[in-house]
Design a protein that fits this description.
The complex is a heteropentamer of chains A (about 625), B (about 170), C (about 450), D (about 475) and E (about 110).
Chain A: H1 2-22, H2 29-57, E1 61-71, E2 74-82, H3 84-107, H4 114-133, H5 137-155, H6 162-193, H7 198-206, H8 213-230, H9 239-242, H10 248-257, H11 262-269, H12 271-276, H13 278-301, H14 305-325, H15 329-356, H16 374-388, H17 394-409, H18 411-436, H19 444-449, H20 455-470, E3 475-476, E4 479-480, H21 481-486, H22 501-527, H23 540-546, H24 551-599, H25 604-624
Antiparallel strand pairs in A: 1-2, 3-4
Helix pairs in contact in A: 1-2, 1-4, 2-3, 2-4, 3-4, 3-10, 3-15, 3-20, 4-5, 5-6, 5-10, 6-8, 8-11, 10-15, 11-15, 13-14, 13-18, 14-15, 14-17, 14-18, 15-16, 15-17, 15-20, 16-18, 16-20, 17-18, 17-22, 18-22
Chain C: H1 2-19, H2 23-43, H3 62-83, H4 91-110, H5 114-132, H6 139-170, H7 175-183, H8 190-205, H9 214-221, H10 224-249, H11 256-277, H12 282-298, H13 308-332, H14 347-350, H15 352-366, H16 372-386, H17 390-416, H18 428-446, H19 449-452
Helix pairs in contact in C: 1-2, 1-4, 2-3, 3-4, 3-10, 3-13, 3-18, 4-5, 4-10, 5-6, 5-10, 6-8, 6-9, 8-10, 9-10, 9-12, 10-12, 10-13, 11-12, 11-17, 12-13, 12-17, 13-15, 13-16, 13-18, 15-17, 15-18, 16-18
Chain E: H1 2-8, H2 10-30, H3 34-59, H4 63-93
The chains are: A mainly alpha (about 625), B mainly alpha (about 170), C mainly alpha (about 450), D mainly alpha (about 475), E mainly alpha (about 110).
């Protein structure tokens, strides 16, 4: 029963994928989209079912399908694990997935490759489910790479544009760098524990099996590299903003809500290992904090609506990593969930805007849209409040908990995180003001076409806005349902910080900080009616920020160009030299042959001369030399 | 006495051999060569190998040299028409002559046992009269009968060869 | 002994046939006769009667080699009438000379006395001088004959000098005596010098470096059929005779002679192969290839006591491949005044069978399995490794690699270039001889034991 | 029935094809290759049932040479790979018309015959013969039916031939040397030779030259790209799909068991060299302008990893190598076939002249995409299973080497996706590109099916090869 | 007669014939006139014949002298064939200078 349910859960999106690949073109557009949506909805239903089951039984479900690979002295099964963590993830992956599918039916309606879009989305959901439910690192890796593949396919969905293809390729390759780390991590764990199975490793750790902590540290560090690739942390984050080349639903689903959280999922999965290696945790925390700050800085001056959201995603992911690094896995998970709600809502909202603007993404050409798009505006406002950390809204609770933990563990990190939060509030409201307030700055033609999006688009927005509002209550300070729910995942119980004055003080500080950010944005963009200038007018530090600290350029100069240079050098010189050397051997022999022909000069006298000399030398050697 | 004769004969042999080579005119060369052959026959006589000496003179001086002379005459080669040889050729020839002579002689001197007069083996039997030679040459069981007959094949081949090489082409050729 | 007589009689018969004007019967009768003699020789395989003052010994060594020589002669004689189509009146001469040459060849492996050896080698040489110069209207042929004659006679002088010294040391021309005297310690030192001079003469005959200079010129100038004879039969004969001589004298030779032999072997292989690379004339190329193969075969002399079978195998493989290659060459260069490679252009299209045969022959020479040339090389290398001559084997391997270069030049010409002229009709015998030779070559490749076990 | 039956079928097939005439040659060749596949499947059943399918017969008395053909799991896997790929390769050529096709197809079958013989041989001498024998057909296939300028083709092919021939001669010397010690060429006898490490080193080196050139490993690879480019598609597939597996298989079957001490002593050098090839191949592939050359260099990178796995001499390494051989065999044949499909339509190999194919032929694009993904070892494809085990085995020996070797998954993705992007994506090409026809599609689908199926369920192969590999490890570790 | 050898010493004879042999070699190398070269080769052969006779005496054995007969037969046969070839060449190029025979080379 469980097995077949799991198979349904897994294969429903895959069936949707197959249907859309093979028949998508033949059926009408709506059918194609509907089938894709239903496939995901089925999964969502099953996930819900599992959720209720596990809520009552509290027992993880392990399903082994077949024996897959054999490594050294252990086997790797094709098996799946449904426990609290994976079901939680399943829920919001398939849930948000369903909403975004619905949204896409309308959003992508005019695209000639609609059926492919749904096929890829379904495939993505399939791989995401694999990633989340895999019972060992290898199955997880299948999903891990699979979602990477789908991300590649969807970023490059409009494949006629080679720039989009470049972005897709970049995303895939950057992910692959992380994946190598992941692989090495798997190797290390396999070597240390003779298993890559989560349950087995967990049991081993729980039973106090002695492991070489040095190697374990190496392994967890490698895993973290893997996570940072997928979850866009420094130094592997640059692909995420570029990934905005894909259709907006993709950005919402993959690059905000689900795939990018895979790294957090993985680290949470292996929390018991990371707990053993505090050094690595420290690194994770620091990287997370810095990432959140750097991304927030960059987001301050971006003008592309999706780019701002992308950097905001990076920044929020950084916060999650900060939490992970501080050992507060459940808080990270909490933030993942709330972030999934409001960020999906934001992206979909921006998609709605872009839809209305006919593909225009530059905020400088927007403005005053709230008059034209009421629903979009309201939902967007709610999500923005959520992300800025205004109380009641979901983001407030999760972000606040992160800041709190940081405050307790490391003040410096707390400062950084708080700074990032303030900036978040600023740039999100900057985005909001520039887009929805003041007068419309686009062309008349665009103004003429401005309209509220159809209900298929607004419905998901509304649902997500609601979730962004109430989502925070799953982990209300002091009475956290989530923490209780996730307990079985961890080995070490984290000491709970009781709700005390410090807590309230910190909450107050956070809220004040957010309000300060909003206030600055208000004064700049409402009071002073500023509009960011054209690209060439930007100077000073803003220019550095606007150009994203030139990180892409630096990578290009430090890594990509040298590789190309080495490649050219190898191709033009080493290859030629090697080939020339081998060829040269032949050539030299040939040359000797040519020269040797001179000796064969046809003169009997010379021939006999050599004959005699030869004779004389032989006799001399044999009889006189000794 | 014998020694003197030996040295005189040897001197004639070597001198005439050299002259054969150095004389420009082929006819003169041939004549020097005949002298050389005669002196070698003299050596044979010294060894009391009269039959061999006679055969030698008949074959070499009589047959081979006549053949050579005949050819020279036939081709009207009795001019000194050989081109001036290059210095390199001369040098090479001289060098190789010296080298090979030195090497061979040195090898012989090095390896040669010093034989006193008494060291020579003397059987006292007759071993080189016509009678004995005939027996050795033509005896089937203990002699060189087979090679003797085989030599006939050799001569036959050279005969056919000579004929083949000078046979007129029939009309159909070319 | 009977083999020798029978062949000589056959030769005389040929001459008589011309007189009685039964020219057409000469070749068939000769071939049948030779095949009969082959049977006779082969059946008396292990008869080691040595009568006639031990002049001729038929033993394990001489009989298989004699058979090989007879077989090769059959091929060569079969090719004669087609080759000398325009000189029919000379056919009896050509055939009988080849037969007499065969007597010389047989004498050279079956000799029990240096007199027989000397006469044998002279018969062989003189026949070859004649055959080389036999196209008397062609200056090239004349030149080849002249060069060969001058140098050959020169080398004969050395051989004779060597024989004289050996005689001086031992007091007999009998091989048995020589071998026996050789094993006793007190032999006059000039025996060695004689043996070396004799060896030098033989090295000249097998065209080993640095005594090889005559070979390319003579091969190129001679009529193609004669070249075939020289590069297959004559080379193999000289090699076998040399082997026999060395195995008789081996015990006596100073150790350093092994080194000298190695150097000569390496020189021959290398010079032969490197020089062959840049040749345009196929006959000349095969001459150099022959030099390198002489170098390979010389290696057997480094382990005389065990490698007679390998020499036989190598010689058979090489000679059969040579016959096959030359049959094709005869066809291709028919009515041409040169044998340059471009004549082979497009043979793969105009005459696939012959092209395939030539390819096979060349692959055999290059030492690529399943052709027997490969097995020959392997057995040879094995023998050498066994004797501890690793360096020699390495050099030989490198040389095998070089040799592929020029063998493939010809193959490339056949298969990648366009033919310059339309296909000519192929005389039946060419195809037949080439096919039989290559089939035999492959056959001994598939059943190497057949030959290898003969001499053990 | 023993394994010789398979050889006989192939040989008879070659002869029958040769005699059949140009019109029917391709069909007859296909028929016989299918028959050979059937026979090898049947043999697999026999083998699994524990029956003796080996053959041993004395051939040459002195020196002692046997006709010894034997199969264990590893061999069966390779034989199956060969006989399964052959019909595909032959079938894939139906879209081209070759002059003198009877010779062409006869040569293909003959080459397969020799390659199967190489896999099956248990006698060193026989093995060498088959090894060399397989070289001749490919030489002619590439020479006569190849593409491009005949002059440069000739140069490349001759270089290839001489080069590989040169390498294998050194292997021959090693064999002969071993024979002098043991007095037999049988593998089972040869491994009993008592050798010092020094001796083993030279023997190892002799084998290494042969294999390194054939596989090829850097710096012995210079023949590869040109030959892959110039050979007809079928030749390239045979070369890359099967022939180089022959050398990799030989490492496991011959080289390591015969010279284990040397292999252990110099393990890091050889693993290092192989892994260096991974990086080098990937990097040079980045700059290739010709699609076939790019694939050649990618192949260089992949086989470098496989060789590295072999040289680690761990069970994982050998198993990963074997799995990856099979995966790479199918994958590379598929990729070269894709390249061939493109060049059938565009008559060019230059990447710069392609692009925009996706718009015109979505089916082909999807298939090509899957092959590209398999080539970059995406999990779920067969290649991943192999590559994972290989990297795992490297990690056991040295994490550094593993990381270096692991960059293949980054660089591989880099050049493959770059190529895919330039060839398939972008604006529509002016030149017309017909989508795959049924024949082409069938071949692609079969290959993709194999890659995906075994990617998820490699167990049958793992079960087949693991006992043999364990045996091999035991032999390697005997001293 | 044994006494001759005893008197003069076999060494001297060997030296003599060696020198004569070398003169023959020298002649072949020195001259380019084919006929003279023939003659030089005859000198070489004669040197060997002399040596054979010396050894024959030394061993008191007739075989050496018998061998000389064969040697003479060979010499005669060689000269016959050689001259036939020479005549052929002379017919073609009207010269017997072997340096003019350099068509075959390389």
């Amino acid at each position: 029963m469980e097995t077949s349910l799991l198979l349904f859960l897994l294969l429903a999106p895959f069936a949707g994928f197959l249907f859309n690949v093979f028949f998508g073109k033949k059926v009408s557009r709506n059918v194609s989209g509907t089938i894709g949506t239903i496939a995901v909805a089925i999964s969502f239903g099953i996930a819900l079912n599992f959720f209720f089951q596990i809520n009552s039984t509290k027992k993880p479900i392990l399903i082994e399908l077949f024996h897959w690979m054999t490594l050294g002295n252990f086997n790797v099964g094709f098996s799946f694990l449904l426990d609290q963590l994976s079901i939680l993830w399943l829920l919001f992956v398939t849930g948000i997935g369903t909403l975004i599918h619905i949204y896409s039916i309308s959003y992508m309606h005019d695209d000639e490759n609609l059926h492919k879009f749904f096929a890829y989305l379904n495939l993505f959901i399939f791989f995401m489910i694999t990633l989340v439910t895999g019972s060992n690192l290898l199955i997880m890796f299948i999903g891990w790479e699979g979602v990477g593949l789908c991300s590649y396919l969807l970023i490059g969905f409009w494949y006629k544009n080679q720039e989009y293809n470049d972005a897709a390729k970049k995303a895939f390759i950057m992910n692959r760098i992380g994946d190598l780390g992941f692989l090495i991590g798997i190797f290390t764990l396999g070597y240390l524990f003779s298993s890559v199975d989560f349950t087995t490793i967990k049991t081993a750790v729980a039973s106090g099996q002695t492991v070489d902590l040095g190697w374990l540290g190496f392994g967890t560090f490698c895993l973290f590299i893997g996570a940072s690739g997928k979850s866009a942390q420094i130094p592997l984050y640059t692909w995420l903003p570029d990934a905005m080349a894909g259709p907006t639903p993709v950005s919402a689903l993959i690059h905000a809500a689900t795939m990018v959280t895979a790294g957090i999922f993985m680290i949470t999965r292996l929390n018991f290992l990371f707990d053993l290696t505090p050094n690595i945790q420290m690194i994770i925390a620091v990287i997370g904090a810095i990432t959140s700050l750097v991304a927030a800085f960059i987001a301050l001056v971006q003008n592309d609506i999706k780019k701002v959201l992308a950097y905001s995603t990076v920044s929020q992911l950084g916060l999650m990593f900060l939490a992970l690094g501080l050992g507060a896995y459940e808080i990270a998970v909490f933030h993942v969930i709330t972030h999934a709600f409001f960020k999906a809502c934001l992206f979909l909202g921006s998609g709605s805007v872009i839809h209305a603007m006919h593909g225009e993404q530059d905020m400088r050409k927007m403005g005053g849209l709230r008059k034209y798009m009421k629903v979009t505006y309201i939902t967007f406002l709610i999500a923005t409040l959520a992300i800025s950390g205004i109380p009641i809204f979901a983001g407030f609770f999760s972000k606040d908990e992160i800041l709190m933990v940081a405050f307790h563990e490391n003040k410096a990190l707390w400062v950084i995180a708080s700074l990032a939060s303030i900036m978040t509030a600023f740039y999100m409201f900057r985005l909001l003001y520039l887009t929805f307030f003041k007068e419309f700055r686009g062309t008349d033609e665009q103004r003429h076409h401005l309209h509220e999006s159809p209900s298929l688009i607004t419905f998901p927005l509304i649902v997500l806005a609601i979730l962004s509002t109430v989502g925070g209550f799953i982990s209300f300070p002091g009475h956290s349902w989530l923490n209780e729910y996730l307990k079985p995942i961890f080995i070490r119980a984290r000491e709970e910080h009781h709700v005390d004055t410090t807590t309230f003080m910190l909450m107050g500080v956070a809220v004040v900080g957010a309000l300060i950010g909003i206030g600055i944005a208000y004064s700049n963009y409402i009071k002073k009616s500023q509009v960011p200038g054209a690209d060439n007018e930007i100077t000073g530090f803003s220019k550095v920020l606007y150009n994203k600290f030139y990180v892409d350029e630096i990578y290009m100069a430090v890594i990509v160009r040298p590789i190309y240079a080495i490649a050219s050098f190898s191709k033009n010189f080493i290859e030629t030299a090697l080939s020339g050397f081998i060829f040269g051997l032949g050539k030299v022999t040939n040359m000797v042959g040519t020269q040797g022909r001179v000796l064969q000069n046809g003169s009997v006298g010379f021939y006999l001369f050599v004959f005699v000399i030869g004779t004389a030398s032989i006799i001399a050697y044999l009889f006189l030399a000794q | 006495m014998l020694t003197t004769v030996f040295y005189i004969l040897s001197a004639i042999t070597l001198a005439s051999a050299f002259l054969t080579i150095f004389t420009k005119n082929p006819i003169h060369s041939a004549i020097y060569l005949v002298i050389c052959f005669f002196s070698i026959a003299g050596h044979y006589l010294l060894f009391n190998a009269q039959f061999l000496a006679v055969v030698h003179i008949i074959v070499y001086s009589g047959a081979i040299m006549i053949l050579l002379l005949f050819t020279i005459m036939l081709m009207n080669l009795n001019k000194e028409d050989e081109k001036h040889k290059s210095g390199l050729t001369i040098l090479a020839a001289v060098a190789s002559f010296c080298l090979v002579a030195y090497v061979l002689l040195a090898a012989f001197i090095k390896s040669m046992p010093i034989l006193e007069k008494g060291d020579y083996y003397v059987s006292g039997e007759d071993y080189q009269s016509i009678k004995v030679l005939g027996q050795v040459l033509l005896d089937e069981k203990n002699g060189f009968m087979i090679p003797f007959e085989f030599a006939s094949v050799l001569l036959l081949v050279s005969m056919i060869g000579a004929v083949l090489l000078s046979k007129k082409e029939e009309k159909i050729s070319l | 002994m009977y083999t020798l007589i029978a062949i000589a009689v056959l030769g005389v018969l040929c001459l008589l046939a011309e007189i009685f004007n039964v020219r057409k019967a000469i070749v068939p009768v000769t071939i049948i006769g030779l095949l009969a003699i082959l049977g006779l020789t082969a059946t008396g395989l292990n008869d080691s009667a040595d009568s006639y003052n031990n002049m001729i010994v038929s033993d394990n060594f001489s009989t298989p080699f004699s058979c090989l020589f007879i077989l090769l002669t059959v091929f060569l004689i079969a090719l004669t009438p087609s080759f000398h189509q325009k000189e029919v009146h000379k056919i009896s001469d050509f055939v009988s000379i080849k037969l007499f040459l065969l007597t010389g060849a047989v004498a050279m492996v079956a000799f029990g006395n240096l007199a027989m050896f000397f006469l044998g080698i002279e018969i062989l040489s003189i026949s070859l001088y004649v055959l080389a110069a036999s196209n008397r209207l062609s200056l090239k042929s004349n030149e080849a004959g002249m060069k060969y004659f001058l140098m050959g006679a020169f080398a004969s002088g050395f051989i004779l000098f060597g024989i004289a010294l050996i005689y001086g040391a031992i007091g007999s021309f009998d091989m048995a005596v020589i071998q026996e005297a050789g094993t006793s310690a007190d032999v006059e030192d000039w025996f060695y010098i004689g043996a070396i001079l004799l060896s030098i003469g033989m090295l000249f005959k097998i065209a080993a470096a640095p005594f090889h200079f005559w070979a390319p010129d003579v091969y190129e100038g001679s009529p193609a059929l004669t070249t075939a004879l020289m590069s297959t039969l004559a080379k193999v004969v000289a090699m076998a005779a040399f082997f026999k001589l060395v195995s008789a004298m081996n015990v006596n030779l100073p150790d350093s002679s092994q080194t000298a032999l190695m150097v000569i072997s390496i020189l021959s292989m290398t010079i032969g192969n490197i020089m062959a690379l840049k040749q345009n004339n196929v006959k000349r190329m095969l001459a150099f290839s022959g030099i390198s193969h002489a170098g390979f075969m010389l290696m057997t002399l480094l382990a005389v006591s065990t490698s007679a079978g390998i020499l036989l195998y190598y010689a058979s493989a090489y000679a059969l491949a040579g016959i096959a290659a030359f049959s094709v060459l005869l066809y291709v260069t028919k009515d041409k005044d040169n044998e340059d490679i471009f004549n082979f252009n497009g043979l793969g299209k105009t005459n696939p069978l012959l092209a395939a045969i030539l390819t096979g022959a060349l692959l055999s020479m290059a030492g690529i399995p399943i052709f027997s040339g490969f097995f020959a090389k392997v057995f040879l290398f094995g023998q050498m490794l066994n004797a501890g001559h690793i360096i020699l084997v390495i050099v030989a391997v490198v040389n095998s690699i070089i040799s592929v270069g020029y063998y493939f030049k010809l193959i490339l010409a056949m298969y990648t270039k366009e033919a310059t002229e339309a296909a000519k009709p192929v005389p039946f015998v060419y195809t037949a001889v080439a096919t039989v030779a290559i089939v035999l070559n492959i056959a001994i490749g598939l059943y190497p034991s057949f030959l290898l076990d003969l001499l053990v | 029935m023993d394994v010789s039956f398979l050889l006989i079928i192939l040989l008879v097939g070659a002869i029958a094809t040769f005699l059949s005439g140009d019109k029917w040659a391709s069909k007859i060749a296909l028929l016989f290759s299918l028959a050979a596949f059937g026979v090898s499947v049947y043999l697999l059943n026999l083998y699994n049932a524990g029956q003796n399918i080996n053959l041993i017969k004395q051939w040459v008395t002195i020196p002692k040479i046997y006709i010894a053909l034997g199969a264990d799991g590893l061999t069966m896997a390779m034989v199956l790979l060969t006989t399964a790929l052959t019909p595909l390769i032959i079938f894939s050529s139906f879209g081209n018309s070759y002059a003198k096709s009877k010779n062409f197809y006869a040569l293909i079958l003959f080459m397969v015959f020799a390659m199967v013989g190489t896999f099956l041989s248990a006698d060193g001498f026989l093995y060498y013969i088959f090894w060399e024998l397989s070289l001749i057909p490919i030489y002619f296939i590439a020479l006569i039916w190849g593409n491009g300028n005949p002059q440069s083709r000739k140069k490349a092919v001759v270089k290839f031939f001489i080069y590989t021939f040169a390498g294998s001669l050194f292997m021959l010397v090693s064999f002969i040397y071993l024979y002098q010690i043991t007095g037999s060429f049988l593998l089972s006898d040869l491994i009993r030779a008592q050798l010092s490490t020094q001796e083993q080193f030279w023997i190892f080196l002799g084998f290494f030259l042969a294999y390194a050139i054939k596989i090829p490993l850097i710096p012995f690879h210079t023949w590869q790209a040109k030959v892959y480019q110039k050979a007809p598609a079928v030749g390239t597939m045979l070369l890359s799909g099967i022939m180089l597996k022959m050398a990799l298989y030989s490492i496991i079957r011959w080289q390591l068991p015969l010279a284990p001490l040397a292999a252990k002593e110099y393990l890091y050098y050889f693993v290092g060299l192989s892994v260096a090839g991974v990086i080098y191949g990937s990097i040079v592939a980045l700059k290739q302008k010709d699609i076939k050359k790019l694939l050649a260099y990618s192949s260089l990178a992949h086989v470098g990893l496989i060789a590295a796995g072999c040289y680690t001499m761990t069970l994982d390494g050998l198993r990963g190598a074997t799995l990856q051989m099979i995966a790479h065999g199918f994958g590379v044949v598929g990729l070269f076939f894709a390249a061939e499909i493109i060049s059938r339509r565009y008559t060019t190999g230059k990447i710069s002249e392609m692009g925009g194919i996706r718009i015109q032929s979505p089916k082909f694009t999807s298939m090509f995409m899957i092959l590209v993904l398999a080539s970059v070892a995406l999990p779920g494809t067969f290649n991943f299973v192999g590559e994972f085990e290989l990297l795992y085995s490297l990690a056991q020996k040295s994490v550094t080497i593993c990381i270096i070797g692991g960059t293949t998954i980054i660089l591989g993705a880099f050049y493959m996706l770059r190529m895919f992007q330039k060839v398939m994506l972008g604006e529509k090409n002016e030149k017309f590109f017909a989508d795959v026809n049924f024949n082409e599609g069938l071949v692609m689908v079969i290959i993709i099916g194999v890659l995906l199926f075994f990617g998820l369920y490699p167990k049958p192969i793992i079960d087949l090869i693991t006992p043999s590999l364990e045996e091999a490890i035991k032999v390697i570790n005997r001293i | 007669m044994q006494s001759v050898l005893q008197e003069i010493g076999i060494n001297n004879y060997i030296y003599l014939s060696t020198i004569l042999f070398c003169i023959g070699i020298f002649g072949v190398l020195f001259r380019r006139n084919a006929i003279i070269m023939f003659m030089s080769i005859e000198i070489m052969l004669n040197a060997v014949n002399l040596l054979l006779v010396v050894f024959s005496t030394y061993h008191q054995d007739a075989a050496g002298q018998v061998f000389v007969f064969f040697s003479m037969a060979v010499a005669a046969a060689e000269v016959a064939v050689g001259l036939a070839i020479l005549v052929g060449i002379y017919r073609n190029i009207h010269s017997i200078d072997i340096d003019k025979l350099k068509n075959l080379k390389g």
